[in-house]
Amino acid sequence: MIKKSLFILLIGLMSIVLVACGGKKSGSDSGEATESVVVGDDIKGATELSFWTFASLHMEFFEEAAKRWNEENSDKPIKLKVETYPYDQMHNNLLLALQSGKGAPDIVDIEISRFPNYLQGEPQLLPMNQFVEPEIDNFVKARLEIYSKDGQYYGMPTHVGASVMYYNKEIMDEAGVDIDSIKTWDDYVEAGKQVVAKTGKMMTNVTTGDYIPMWAMISQQGSDWFDKNGEVTVDSPENIKALQFLHDLVYVHKIAELTPGGQPHAEEYYAYMNEGGAASISMPLWYMGRFIDYMPDLKNKMVIRPMPAWEPGGFRSAGMGGTGTVVTNQTKHPDLAKEFLAFAKLSKEANIKLWTVLGFDPPRWDVWESDEVKQDNKFYQYFGNDIFDTLLEIREEINPVNITSQTPEVQNEINTVTFDSVLRQQTKTAEEALKEAADKIRSNKQ
C-alpha cells in the first residue's frame, strides 16, 4: 500500500541529491523525460536496455559506462536508453510500474530515502549477490547493507557519503588552533572558544532546515531515527544528546550561530562563507562540489579532516545520503542487465570513474590509493592532496543507517518543527521536542 508519507515533498533532500546540469533533450509534458540519450544506437545487433535516473550527472556517468562496455564487450554490445525524470515523478512512476507488473525500466536509480518502499513484501528487484559477494571486502560494507534485505543485495551504491569536517585553515591559523589537535567534540568546543576570542568569527553554524548534520552526529554514536527492526528511536538518549549539543553550541558555548538561510545549500550561506563567516562546517564529502561551485573565494583555504568523535576512540564519520542502482524484475535481459550494472558500479574502473566523473567518494575503498584517483583535479586544487588520506583514516568508522518508509516523515518533522522549537524559538528542550516528534511518528506508523 502506498502510504501518505511516501509523498511528502523532500525539498531539503532533493537539493542535496539533485546536481543541476545542462540537458540534452527537454521534455515539455509532465510525462516526458526531462533529458534523454541513447548510447550504442549505431551498433548492429546491440541489445536494448533502458535506464531511469533523477540526476543529470548520473545520466552522464551511465552514458560513459555504456560506451566503455561496448568498447570492451564487442560480442555483447548494448543500446542503452538513458532517461532523466523529476525526482518525485520518477520514484512514483517506478513504484506504480513495479506494483502493476509493467512499464518499469531494466535498470533504475533509487534514492536512499525512497529505497525501503521497493523492499516491502517480495522485492520486485533482482539480487546482485553473484557480483557483490566476491568483491564485498573491498567495499565500505555499510553502503551495500542499506540497499539489502534478508541477505540479498539489490542496490549498487553511488558513493560513501562520508561525513567530514571542513575547516577554514586561514581562520584556524589566525586563532592559533592546530586543526589536527581536535579529536573530540569537547576539543572542538574549546577550539571554537579560541577562534571566537582571537578572530571574532564563529566556529560553525547550526542548521535549522537540514537534518543531515545532526543525523551524522547521532550515527557516530551508533544511534539512528529507527532501529534495525524499523521501530522509532527518534527520542533515544543519543539523539537528545546530539540536539542538545547543537543548541548549546549557539546558546551556551556561543561558538556558533544559526545558519544563514537555514541550511548549507542556501545562497545566503554561500555568501556568508565566502566572506569568512565561520571556521568550519560538517557535511558529507559530496559537499565539496558546493564549495567549488558556490564558494570560490575559499579555494586553498579549506581543508578536510575527520569529524570529532564523541569520546576518545569513537567513530569520526557517518555515511549520509546515497542512491542505489537496481535491476528490476521486468527486464527481458536479466543476465546482461546485471552484468552491465556490476560493470558500471562495482568494478575498480567504475569506482575510479565515480571520483573522476562525479567527484564522489567511491564505495570501493581499494581504489582510494590508486594512481588514477591521485591524479590532479579541481577537488585537489581546491582542498589539497590529502582528501583520501582522511577517507582511509575513517573507512571503518561508518555505521549503516536504517532507512524506512517513514524516513521522509522524520525529515519533515525535524526540519520544520523540532529545529524551530529547540533552535529558533527555544520553546522546548531537546528532550521534549524529540519525544513529541517520536510520538507523532509512532502514531502515524501503519
UniProtKB/TrEMBL annotation:
<keyword id="KW-0732">Signal</keyword>
<dbReference type="InterPro" id="IPR006059">
    <property type="entry name" value="SBP"/>
</dbReference>
<keyword id="KW-1003">Cell membrane</keyword>
<dbReference type="Pfam" id="PF01547">
    <property type="entry name" value="SBP_bac_1"/>
</dbReference>
<keyword id="KW-0472">Membrane</keyword>
<keyword id="KW-0564">Palmitate</keyword>
<keyword id="KW-0449">Lipoprotein</keyword>
<protein>
    <submittedName>
        <fullName>Arabinosaccharide transport system substrate-binding protein</fullName>
    </submittedName>
</protein>
<dbReference type="InterPro" id="IPR050490">
    <property type="entry name" value="Bact_solute-bd_prot1"/>
</dbReference>
